[in-house]
Design goal:
The protein is built from 14 helices and ten strands. The protein has helices at residues 22-35, 49-59, 75-83, 97-102, 107-124, 142-155, 177-190, 208-217, 239-248, 261-272, 293-301, 328-337, 345-360, 367-379, and strands spanning 3-6, 39-43, 66-72, 88-92, 129-133, 159-164, 196-201, 222-225, 289-290, 319-320. The N and C termini lie far apart (69 Å). The protein binds zinc ion. Zinc ion (ZN) is lined by residues 11, 165, 200, 202, 231-232, 236.
Length: 383
Amino acid sequence: MVKILDSTLREGEQTPGVYFDVHIKLAIADMLDALGIDIIEAGHPLVTPEIQHSVEEIAKRGLKAKIGAHARSLKLDVDMALSCGVQFLGIFYCVSDERLSDQDKKLHQAVDQIAQVISYARAQKPDLLIRYTPEDAVRSPFQNVLDAATAAVTAGADIISIADTTGFMIPGTPNNLYDYVKRLKEELGKKNCYPQIAVHCHNDRGLALANALDGFRGGAEIIDTAVLGLGERAGIVDLATLLVILTQDFKMKNGWDLTKLPEVYQLVSKYSRISIPVNYPITGENAFTHCAGVHTQAAIRNPLHYQSVQPEVVGRKSKISLDHMSGIAAVKYSLDQIGESNLEKDFVLRVLERVKDVGQRGRTVDLPELKYIVRYLREHSPC
Ligand SMILES: [Zn+2]
């Protein structure tokens, strides 16, 4: 069963200018927990005392989700994370040749450090869920990643996270996560190492979601997400879109309550001050709105003609938009909704004309405005 690790509170705060106050962080954590998220990455406690305090507050909340902290491969970070009372610890260390040479380190020195820190963390808290992330794994030499991952698992790591830190992978090319996850699992298996595999996909090429699904098909058991896909640069996998696809198309069930998605998206959008694009899948204002005349005519009969995702899955409804693209069917349907069902055909055509005029000025007509249009036209009959 695939698990979701949501990193809105950690990766999401790496979006330039985004910071959630502690009381907002608690509200977001509660909502993610109610949604059924398995692991909530609450922050990197070493970054500021206030983040440390937030991680502590979330960890002692008694949520069903495991609460996690981020840590460099240093005892200092591990101690600080564990002092917050977390149940999950994510330790990262890049083992690419370039980064090792920048730090004047040999691979074996890095691997020793990773293993020592993980052994230390394991000794401090035997039931801790430990993840090791070789940052930029997919652009690092595979053997380096394999050596580091093997040492990490042997030292006590439960999860190896394949980080596509720069959004480098592309499904269907030699650089794809499906093959990468399969190969890593096979190679680790040869060493009697069977960690859970996570995928952390950045969206630099707009392919974070596609890559995450590719990794999932290749055998990944955990997928990292953020509300609104927040994160460094172009962000990471969007939580809502992933959950809908896993539920609807891959028939995965893990106790997720997708009807809670709009609420958490509104909250995160408000306090990150990043608006949800109107055309964003699942949570965007227009995601289930039909506009063009042909579309609305068919969608009024059966929304499935122009929808492959059911809005009810996330507690939303289909909508009809009235503007310059509207036809008679959309106007009649909307007039029904405001209790104006028995109007003469000529009058309905005048309403349609008025709606198109408004639409050409770049606005849509909502139901309250439609009432004003009807009243105006009644009061101004053509001579
Ligand atoms: Zn990241």
